[in-house]
TrEMBL record:
Organism: Paractinoplanes deccanensis
A Pfam entry, by short name: Methyltransf_25
Keywords: Methyltransferase, Transferase
Record lineage: Bacteria, Bacillati, Actinomycetota, Actinomycetes, Micromonosporales
The protein, known as: Methyltransferase type 11
GO aspect biological process, one term: methylation
Length: 245
């Protein structure tokens, strides 16, 4: 399954992937009442990039992650936080053991959850669902790495439907907010490592992926800004009606 392919590059994923703006967690607390003593279930925690800020709100966090290497690295990264427990499982197969939560949080992971079973189970487990996601955007006039390397992408993986330009920042900002800007400054090798952790590149055969990302890295002559807009979507959950009632 692709949702565990990132497990093959757990340490690289931890190093290369962006974090989330701290304002996201401040607003999440304001919207849901999270604070000391609150109980959070995090689905698909990866290496814990969103887990730590949740714990720093004073919450107790149960974080689940299907990848054994990713979950092991999360335990290592979060070992100093006594109120964080990392469990290795998919959300669909996870044994909740009767535990219930104030908020279920999924940061860059909810798209891997079953679209029918996931929301139903979320409503059984938590009072709120909070989805956090980073969207890559571009600004006119700034270097845009797909535009600068489109010929390389077509040479190594021609006609791939995953290739294309990220949306313009203003187009995304015109949609429902809130939005939180985030920037990574990347040189060629750092950008290549980031690509190695992204699903369109994980889908490629290594004999295609590695020459492609190496060629992309060689094309980049100086550091450039990789821009993101982070979104926060919070909804109140209604427990399902018991069967037969």
């Amino acid at each position: 399954m692709l949702d565990t392919v990132f497990d093959e590059v757990a340490a690289l994923y931890d190093r290369a992937r962006p974090t989330y703006p701290p304002e996201v967690f401040t607003d999440l607390a304001a919207l849901t009442g999270l604070g000391p003593g609150s109980r959070v279930l995090e689905v698909g925690c990866g290496t814990g990039k969103a887990t730590r800020p949740l714990a720093e709100l004073g919450c107790s966090v149960v974080a689940i992650e299907p990848g054994p290497r990713l979950s092991a690295l999360a335990r290592e990264r979060l070992a100093d936080l006594p109120d964080v427990v990392v469990e290795t499982s998919t959300f669909e197969e996870w044994d909740d053991r009767g535990r219930r939560f104030d908020v279920l949080v999924a940061a860059s992971s909810w798209h891997w959850v079953d679209p029918v079973a996931g929301p139903r189970r979320a409503a059984e487990l938590a009072g709120h669902l909070a989805l956090i996601d980073n969207t890559v955007v571009r600004r006119p006039g700034e270097p845009e790495m797909y535009a600068a390397t489109a010929d390389l992408h077509e040479r190594f993986s021609p006609g791939n439907p995953a290739w294309g330009h990220p949306p313009l920042e203003d187009e995304v900002l015109a949609g429902p907010g809130p939005w939180y800007p985030l920037v990574q400054w990347l040189d060629g090798p750092a950008f290549a490592d980031l690509l190695r952790t992204q699903s369109p590149y994980r889908r490629l055969d290594p004999a295609v992926r590695e020459p492609l990302v190496d060629a992309v890295a060689a094309r980049i002559r100086e550091p450039f800004p990789r821009r993101y807009l982070c979104s926060l979507r919070v909804s109140r959950l209604t427990p399902p009606t018991p069967a037969g009632s």
